[in-house]
Structure to design on (303 residues):
């Protein structure tokens, strides 16, 4: 296995107590796979990516990426690992790119740090910018490019030193739907071309369903692995019934009532709070008989 993660724990010291962000994570990933991690805010997705990228060290457990045992690497070896063996793609452009440098310059920079010759740097940077479809824009600065283009430059930067592993933390979180899909399709294409292994944290189920596997993370623990439901897109029946994907169901708390809100961008389903139902129970006591009957019928259906 390319990545081996065994009983990984991450605790942060916050003021005078410890905050446990990851509580015993176990998973393996094979070389060449694209894996998505989904989970609510605060679940520990970024913490896990930071550990795999050598940006932070686990409190306990075993963590191996390729030939590197990340708990044993000393400072210099860890810096080298970060520079040469792993690429990062973040949600926000400021974290990915230097704003006052051109796309070409941004891509050559990590290679300069790795001691690659100026000739090789330019050659590879041009090749990468071409691979992400930005050959004509290589002399532009980030502000002169669209959000989707900036993220594609960021991919070229991440791949500058030919890493085996690409870690992406909400890489499409700041993009519109169309640019987001383009970024994901590009990642799939580059995976083949550069023999990459990709681990991506996302809130977005459509992005996640482009991965080979989907891991769920909640309160610092991995849940069940989800089936990809790309082939089984939910269909709205004439009666108004939709069969939701597993991932959506697990977000909605099984068996709870849901509220439906119509928004300009679509329809939002949300678990409805129990209190709503309880307050209905109280109000209904002094309601006229027909409403009471309706309520009893509703309650029977819910039970
Ligand atoms: N450097 C840190 N110091 C202290 N606590 C931290 C640190 N980084 C993360 N945490 C805490 O660890 C928990 C997990 O955070 P993390 O950022 O990994 O979640 P996440 O799943 O990436 O969330 P989001 O979707 O909002 O990005 C949270 O409770 C967070 O407040
Ligand atoms: Mg995060």
């Amino acid at each position: 296995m390319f990545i081996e993660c065994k009983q990984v724990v991450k605790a942060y010291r916050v003021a005078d107590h410890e905050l446990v962000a990851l509580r015993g994570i176990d998973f393996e990933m094979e070389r060449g796979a694209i894996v998505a991690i989904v989970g609510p805010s605060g679940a520990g997705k970024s913490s896990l990516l930071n550990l795999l990228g050598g940006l932070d060290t686990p409190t306990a457990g075993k963590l191996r990426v390729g030939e590197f045992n990340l708990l044993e690497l000393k400072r210099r070896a860890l810096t080298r690992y970060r520079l040469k063996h792993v690429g990062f793609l973040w949600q926000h452009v400021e974290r990915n790119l230097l704003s006052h440098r051109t796309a070409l310059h941004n891509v050559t920079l990590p290679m300069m740090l790795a001691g690659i010759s100026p000739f090789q740097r330019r050659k590879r940077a041009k090749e990468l910018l071409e691979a992400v479809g930005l050959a004509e824009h290589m002399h532009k600065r980030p502000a002169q490019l669209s959000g989707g283009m900036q993220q594609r430059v960021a991919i070229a930067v991440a791949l500058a030193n030919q890493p085996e592993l690409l870690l992406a933390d909400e890489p499409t979180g700041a993009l519109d739907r169309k640019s987001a899909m383009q970024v994901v399709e590009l990642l799939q294409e580059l995976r083949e071309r550069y023999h990459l292994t990709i681990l991506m944290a996302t809130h977005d189920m459509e992005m996640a369903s482009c991965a080979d596997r989907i891991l769920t993370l909640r309160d610092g623990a991995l849940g069940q692995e989800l089936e990809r439901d790309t082939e089984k897109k939910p269909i709205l029946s004439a009666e108004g019934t939709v069969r939701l994907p597993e991932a959506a169901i697990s977000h909605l708390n099984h068996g709870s009532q849901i509220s439906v809100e119509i928004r300009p961008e679509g329809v939002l389903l949300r678990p409805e709070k129990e209190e709503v139902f309880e307050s209905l129970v109280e109000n209904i006591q002094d309601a006229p008989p027909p409403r009471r009957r309706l309520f009893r019928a509703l309650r029977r259906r819910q039970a």
Summary: Residues 177-194 form the longest helix (18 residues). The pocket of magnesium ion (ligand 2) is lined by residues 45-46, 169 (CB under 6 Å). DSSP finds eleven helices and twelve strands in the chain.
